[in-house]
């Protein structure tokens, strides 16, 4: 491996029961829950950056009314992510309800559209999709080959690409 960083080497000379990669809210929640259930567990939380919090970031900015703390990180926590919202509350973070009203408008390659592609919508629930006999065939191909086989429009491919980059931080051709 050729590691010369002594801090890094010291960490891996220790023995841990659990190693959690990433100190965002999910990693912090995992560590907290593990410690509650097994207080004796030796847990190591690894984070690439110099600070914990993952996508939760804020910067102090000068405004006309003085300095204000402005959110520059996470913009959405699902209401169903109860462990994350509980942790946010426990840490004293303010969580706001996201507005979900009005007509959704997409700007795709300079054109505004209010119509959702039928290709990107489904009348089926996620549970129904998972129980479908087609799911094993879908699981055996990657997202890029699926979109290629379906001969999607450029707008549909762009939208899927954008969703993947936001959701899992990778472009379509990498998934």
From TrEMBL:
EC numbers for this chain: 1.4.3.4
Q: Per its UniProt record, what Pfam families does this chain match?
A: Amino_oxidase
Residues folding into a coiled coil are none
Record localization = Mitochondrion outer membrane
Topology relative to the membrane, per the entry?
Answer: Single-pass type IV membrane protein
Name the InterPro entries on file.
Amino_oxidase (IPR002937), FAD/NAD-bd_sf (IPR036188), Flavin_MAO (IPR050703)
Predominant subcellular localization, coarse grouping: mitochondrion
Residue ranges constituting the Amine oxidase domain according to the UniProt record: 25-141
Q: Which GO terms describe its cellular component?
A: mitochondrial outer membrane
Reaction catalysed by this enzyme: a secondary aliphatic amine + O2 + H2O = a primary amine + an aldehyde + H2O2
Per its record, what are the GO molecular function terms?
Answer: monoamine oxidase activity
Q: Which family does it belong to?
A: Belongs to the flavin monoamine oxidase family.
| PANTHER family in UniProt | AMINE OXIDASE, AMINE OXIDASE DOMAIN-CONTAINING PROTEIN
**Entry protein name:** monoamine oxidase
The species this protein belongs to is Ancylostoma caninum (Dog hookworm)
């Amino acid at each position: 491996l050729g590691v010369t960083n002594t801090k890094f080497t010291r960490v891996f000379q220790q023995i841990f029961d659990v190693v959690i990669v990433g100190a965002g809210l999910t990693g912090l929640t995992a560590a907290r829950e593990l410690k509650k259930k097994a207080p004796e567990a030796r847990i190591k939380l690894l984070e690439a950056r110099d600070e914990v919090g993952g996508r939760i970031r804020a910067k102090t900015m000068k405004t006309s009314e003085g300095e204000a703390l402005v959110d520059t990180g996470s913009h959405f926590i699902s209401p169903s992510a109860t462990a994350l919202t509980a942790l946010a509350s426990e840490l004293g973070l303010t969580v706001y309800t996201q507005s979900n009203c009005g007509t959704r408008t997409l700007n795709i390659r300079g054109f505004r559209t209010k119509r959702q592609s039928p290709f990107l919508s489904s009348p089926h629930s996620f549970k129904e999709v998972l129980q479908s006999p087609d799911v094993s065939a879908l699981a055996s191909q990657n997202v890029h080959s699926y979109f290629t086989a379906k001969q999607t429009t450029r707008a549909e491919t762009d939208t899927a690409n954008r969703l993947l980059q936001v959701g899992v931080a990778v472009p379509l051709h990498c998934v």
